[in-house]
Amino acid sequence: MRAWPSPEIPTLPVTGPPVRVHDTPSGSLLDVTPDGPARLYVCGITPYDATHLGHAATYVGFDLLNRAWRNAGHDVTYVQNVTDVDDPLLERATKVGTDWTELAERETELFRQDMAALRVLAPDHYVGAVESIPLVIELIERLQSAGAVYRVEDDWYMSVTADPAFGEESGYDRERMLALYPERGGDPDRPGKKDPLDCIVWRGEREGEPSWPSPFGPGRPGWHVECTAIALEHLGGAFDVQGGGSDLVFPHHEMCAGHAQVVAPGTPFARTYVHAGMVGYDGEKMSKSRGNLVFVSALRNSDVDPAAIRLALMRHHYRADWEWTDGELWDAVDALADWRRALSLGAGAPAGPVVAEVLTALADDLDAPRAVAAVDGWVRATLGTDGLADTTDPDAAVTMLALLDAALGLAV
Length: 412
Hints:
Layout: E1 20-23, E2 28-31, E3 38-42, H1 53-71, E4 76-82, H2 87-96, H3 100-117, E5 125-128, H4 133-145, E6 149-152, E7 155-158, H5 174-180, E8 199-204, E9 219-221, H6 223-235, E10 239-245, H7 249-263, E11 270-276, E12 279-281, E13 284-285, H8 296-301, H9 306-314, E14 322-323, H10 326-344, H11 352-363, H12 368-383, H13 396-408
Parallel strand pairs: 3-4, 3-10, 4-5, 10-11, 12-14
Antiparallel strand pairs: 1-2, 6-7, 7-8, 8-9, 12-13
Helix pairs in contact: 4-6, 6-7, 9-10, 10-12, 11-12, 11-13
């Protein structure tokens, strides 16, 4: 599947510090200094609606990780999936009376445009569920060889007990898992399952739904096994970071880890699991099911500068849960105007300390608010907002422009 064009990244005159991020299983900050290219997998969209700001916050957050690694001197191999066949997509296509493949492609293309506008670096491998079906079938066959899958009517499930480490990724106890599972696509009450938490890996053919041939009968992939198959194919086991929103901790990332660890005992699926917070609107988590969405494309079509959208998102730590308001956006618009005024002077306050502070902040669990505050401080010093203007660094604007682009993804 085609991704979107990546912007060129300026090379900074200094190397950033080693990167550390918050790991969900351990609950602590861990160094993620890769052995070779850094390997990153971030779960992608199910393309049945446009990109909302909750999506954007997640992908901008992991874009900061991509950039922090690169500024620390590492190459990065980045993989992202597109769940371009799944129940929500098929249900939406039926509801609006359109072909599901046309809906998936239309919304995927809109997502590409949004990511390009927000200057998110494109994945090296952007892989759809449909094109990954051969990989999924191969993985299910390996699970079958390990004795970990079984049939219920026309569907196939993986036994979560086949992975001795099941539960370690989320840290949730069984009671919490059982409470969350039906809310997040699981079917704990289905008769015939060996364990209520077992997850579907191959959904047998249903009338009126797309299906593909397989050794397990015609059907289509389960959601979790799709991501596992794609990640293992392009990154291998024990890759550096598995990322996504905090709503993916369970069941999605737990199940993905289970699939991989059954077929490769003793090898973790990922070394680190990193999760972004949820963005709310009108008092609730922003979600398609609730309909309380603010779409990136709608803002762009209203002539809002995408840089202001990105800046508004980066004023919040990627792990924080927070609520979007129109004021967030207009504050970012005003801040960008001040930044541009300061940069237009050419000379400015010394930029070297700002470079060091921004790179250090981003290497410390992607602390974008701290990095943005450092830039705000430079702007105030340069414009003299808090007193006498400081223009003692003749090359400040050149340095700051490169920093903003390379580290924060802002072309201002």
